[in-house]
Amino acid sequence: MQFFIDTANLDHIREATELGILDGVTTNPSLMAKEGITGDNAVLKHYRDICEIVGPGRDVSAEVISTEFKAMVTEGKKLAELHENIVVKVPMIKDGVKAIAHFSELGIRTNCTLVFSAGQAILAAKAGATYVSPFIGRIDDISWDGMTLIKDIFEIYSTTGYETAILAASIRNPLHIVQAAKAGADVVTCPLSAILGLLQHPLTDIGLEKFLADYKKAGG
Ligand code: E4P
């Protein structure tokens, strides 16, 4: 399973890259705004900076703001031309599906975002999306079960042979990462806190403290 970081924060992206486990980055307009990145030129520069930090071969999702087919295509092409790492992120709306199918024909990689049902995931795959992003945290937020959606999509894609990668998004904590791995997600995209949370275990801390104390006691 691949690990993407879900942020536009360059320090977090650097830290995850240095950890040696990062496969890619996802962003969205809210995450860009959170970092104070506004205006077309600043946004495009920020995407380029992210691509340079993560290095070659690591996908970086850049989301279109347009909601109409022609505008989405123009915007998506501009984003794709920015850097070879860029994957065009397109919302699961009618024009979005049309745009994904068009990008697929052009060989432009896409991430279909704002997916909340198995039916939407079927459409995204049929249109040729490279990634489909089911938002598990937001489903949990309304007391439904986000992980069931990952399992359903995994079953459908396995049965049908769709090649779209399941990118579990809207991950809120380390347990989501573990559950998404069990459910068959190809990729998880998570905040740095959730990735670092995977490290935590009190028995590791207690064990290490004892090993170091015994080493000292033995005269090391
Ligand atoms: C990723 O592609 C999504 O934009 C992101 O995971 C949404 O996460 P949130 O529900 O925590 O905002």
Report on this model:
- This protein is α/β, with parallel strands linked by helices.
- Helices cover about 55% and strands about 15% of the residues.
- It has eleven helices and eight strands.
- It has helices at about 10-20, 30-35, 40-55, 70-80, 95-105, 120-125, 135-140, 145-160, 175-185, 190-195, 200-215; strands at about 1-5, 25, 60-65, 85-90, 110-115, 130-135, 165-170, 185-190.
- Strands 1-2-3-4-5-6-7-8 form an eight-stranded parallel β-barrel, surrounded by seven helices.
- Strand 7, helix 9 (about 175-185) and strand 8 form a beta-alpha-beta unit.
- Helix 1 (about 10-20) runs parallel beside helix 3, helix 4 packs across helix 5 and helix 6 (about 120-125) packs across helix 8.
- The structure holds erythose-4-phosphate.
- Erythose-4-phosphate binds next to helix 7.
Brief overview, please?
The chain is an alpha/beta fold and 220 residues long. Helix content is 55%, strand content 17%. It contains eleven helices and eight strands.
